[in-house]
């Protein structure tokens, strides 16, 4: 299959072409404010099956359903409780996914066999335009090969999926850079399943208490049952093994400097890069005091290691507040929770 690169900035028919492909049951890479998505008609099981095939994604990992107006929730979810409405009003359109009980219209292949569905109303104008052109809610996981870092440019999507999908719509680089926050409203209390573009503090400002899923703190064994099935798979990982070092920029840099061998790579803050002249590969992901910029750069930086020959990677990591929680989560997952924690020594 020839993958078509559609450019709305040059071609006024690009969005309509994407919509027509989606209506015909094809899979299309689309820009969103978080990361690129691999979209198909969420109500068409054959179309959704093609997403799993193109990504090499395990069948029990549910997909997020994307909508372009809040009212569509009533066509997808069996219930739209007041807390969900309050969240939607505060943070939609935007980088937040709400898990609700699903209606039968959503096929089991879309929900990974669960009776719930993740719903998101993205803020990216092209994402909204494509959903409207398709005339149906769109199921879309991140547009990467399963296990690789998520994609934040159309070029990344082509790297992973060229020849496997009908088209990619080029909307430039994503403005948030890490995926949406996933919050479940299906249990007794709201539960954060994945940190993302909307912070835990922002969720608590609307909901009061929010539990934090265990999968955010520790590595989950493959055989265990987890609330967000996606959290159990090795994820975001470059080919070389990653060790993440928690501490201040200075203490983590000192520690990493002392570990470096001949083929070591370092993922570090911009302001620490000069420290690692002895490393084989140095990739930076933004200033140490700017977690928003780190979010925009982290996946691209992780991807660049795969173009090098380094055999091990040491990574710096921001503190876990605001969007830093999401950045730290992605780096910890890339490291398979292989963590050196220097923060206690500092205290
Ligand atoms: O920002 C995003 O959310 C991007 C863009 C494309 O919208 N999408 C994305 O999808 O990151 P994906 O499939 O890569 O990650 C979705 C996460 C997975 O961890 C999945 O297990 C969880 O959300 N999830 C989806 N539906 C769920 C459900 N019904 N119950 C529990 N977890 C769910
Ligand atoms: Mg993903």
UniProtKB/TrEMBL annotation:
GO terms for biological process: regulation of translational fidelity; tRNA processing. Its EC number is 2.7.7.87. L-threonine binds at residues 34, 66, 120, 140, 142, 180. It is an enzyme of class 2 (transferase). Keywords: ATP-binding, Cytoplasm, Nucleotide-binding, Nucleotidyltransferase, Transferase, tRNA processing. ATP binds at residues 57, 61, 116, 150, 194, 236. The keyword ATP-binding applies. Belongs to the SUA5 family. Required for the formation of a threonylcarbamoyl group on adenosine at position 37 (t(6)A37) in tRNAs that read codons beginning with adenine. NCBIfam families: L-threonylcarbamoyladenylate synthase (TIGR00057). This is Threonylcarbamoyl-AMP synthase. It comes from Butyricicoccus porcorum.
């Amino acid at each position: 299959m020839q993958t078509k690169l559609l450019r709305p900035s040059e071609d006024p028919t690009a969005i309509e072409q994407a919509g027509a492909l989606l209506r015909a049951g094809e899979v299309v890479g689309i820009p969103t404010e978080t990361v690129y998505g691999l979209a198909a008609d969420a109500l068409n099981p054959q179309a959704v099956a093609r997403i799993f095939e193109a990504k090499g994604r395990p069948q029990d990992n549910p997909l997020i359903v994307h909508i372009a107006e809040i009212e569509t929730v009533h066509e997808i979810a069996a219930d739209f409780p007041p807390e969900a409405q309050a969240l939607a009003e505060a943070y939609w359109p935007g980088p937040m996914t709400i898990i609700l009980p699903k209606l039968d219209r959503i096929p089991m292949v879309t929900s990974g066999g669960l009776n719930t569905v993740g719903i998101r109303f993205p803020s990216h104008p092209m994402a909204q335009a494509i959903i409207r052109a398709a005339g149906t809610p769109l199921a879309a996981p991140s547009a990467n090969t399963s296990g690789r870092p998520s994609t934040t440019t159309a070029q990344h999507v082509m790297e992973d999926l060229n020849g496997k999908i009908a088209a990619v719509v080029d909307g430039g680089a994503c403005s948030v850079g890490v995926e949406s926050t996933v919050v479940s409203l299906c249990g007794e209390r709201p539960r954060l399943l994945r940190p993302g573009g909307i912070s835990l503090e922002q969720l608590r400002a609307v909901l009061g208490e929010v539990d934090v899923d265990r999968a955010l703190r520790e590595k989950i064994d493959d055989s265990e049952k987890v609330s967000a099935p996606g959290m159990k798979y090795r994820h975001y990982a470059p080919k070389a093994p990653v060790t993440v070092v928690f501490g201040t920029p200075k203490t983590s840099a000192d520690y990493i400097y002392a570990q470096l061998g001949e083929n070591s790579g370092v993922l570090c803050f911009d302001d620490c890069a000069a420290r690692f002249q002895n490393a084989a590969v140095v990739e930076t992901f933004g200033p140490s005091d700017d977690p928003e910029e780190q979010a925009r750069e982290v996946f691209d930086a992780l991807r660049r290691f795969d173009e090098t020959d380094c055999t091990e990677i040491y990574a710096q990591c921001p503190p876990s507040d605001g969007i830093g929680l999401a950045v730290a989560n992605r780096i910890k997952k890339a490291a398979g929770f292989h963590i050196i924690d220097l923060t206690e020594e500092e205290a």
